[in-house]
Amino acid sequence: MAFLAAIIKPLAYISVPVVILRSVAASSPTGKYYVRLGMYIGTLTFIATWGAAIAAGMSLVNMRYDVNIVIARCFYALASKVMNIEIEIEGQEHLVAERPSVLMINHQSFLDILIVGRLIPRRTSIMAKSSIRWTPLGPFMIMSGAIFVDRGNNARAVSSLKAAGQTMKSGGVSLWMYPEGTRHLSEQNNLLPLKKGGFHLAIQSGIPIVPIVAENYWWLYRKGFFGTGKIKVRALPPIQTAGLTTEDASALSVRVHEQMMEVLNEISMNSPSQEKTTKNSISSATESVETTTVAETKPSVDVTEGDSEKTPLAVAGTQTSTPSESGSDKVKGEVSETGTETEEDEGMVLVGRPA
């Protein structure tokens, strides 16, 4: 009996927090959101903690640029099971088609770390803002060969990018970065303007750019909601920069933005959020048409010629409004606030915090 008690008691103690968390998650959608958020952050913290020790050991044997893939795959293996979220990749061969390369992906929220865990190739460094050095992720990122850029000092930012280019070419190290410069998650499909820092780096070093697009996962994660499911990601063929000059950076950034935006619409169109948006639009249009028809057929209602002309226009306006158009308008409206290029934030990356 004493032997059984020694086994059962620890299990009982361990099961208590599990039961409590399940009860909280089942109590309300808000409770479920915070429980799942805590599970995700807890998993990230756990991997980052022992990952620092792994990074220290690997850096001692000159394997610092392989630290990211080891820790990232471990995080994905654990977090994908805990959170019941899967990353589905199309075009994975493009990630390693040419080495080194600048891997550019859209940035939506801290859930992107799960995407990094699934996709990041061997010998790949991550670009991050310099303040990340002083966070819990700092020691791990330093030992994994992360490239830190000081957004508040243009001279040091340029120097960091030049040094990064030299390291990439001499060591065959690819660079993972978020060219939008900040996280952006909304119900509509859109991208912020791309900062030119990464394009200058690629052009000056003659290194190809590999655009990567993750679908709009607003349907799976946003403030107040943390669901389960499959996130689709597509890697595009490398874009060569040999023969280009720094004067071509702007045109190249526009070209890559257009390609990424086209793919974003393609892989997001059948996501639950887009289907819901489409159904709601159709439903709203149908209700408007029915209301107009009823108004025209009721004898007690006096419908003037001017009113009858306006109603179809209102309905048509509802039907022709699309998510992509709304997203474009939203981006234009936000350019002055979050999309304007400055010397300070060009090519920056924000990682590791909830959206």
Automatic annotation (TrEMBL):
Please tell me the species this chain comes from. Guyanagaster necrorhizus
- Span of domain Phospholipid/glycerol acyltransferase: 101-217
The record's listing under NCBIfam families reads:
AGP_acyltrn (TIGR00530)
- The protein depicted here goes by the name 1-acyl-sn-glycerol-3-phosphate acyltransferase
Which reactions fall under this protein's catalytic activity?
a 1-acyl-sn-glycero-3-phosphate + an acyl-CoA = a 1,2-diacyl-sn-glycero-3-phosphate + CoA
Q: What are the transmembrane regions?
A: 6-25, 37-61
Identify its protein family.
Belongs to the 1-acyl-sn-glycerol-3-phosphate acyltransferase family.
Q: Where is this region: Disordered?
A: 267-355
Q: Where is the composition biased (Polar residues)?
A: 267-282, 317-326
Give one GO biological process term: phosphatidic acid biosynthetic process
Please list the coiled coil stretches. none
Q: One GO MF term, please?
A: 1-acylglycerol-3-phosphate O-acyltransferase activity
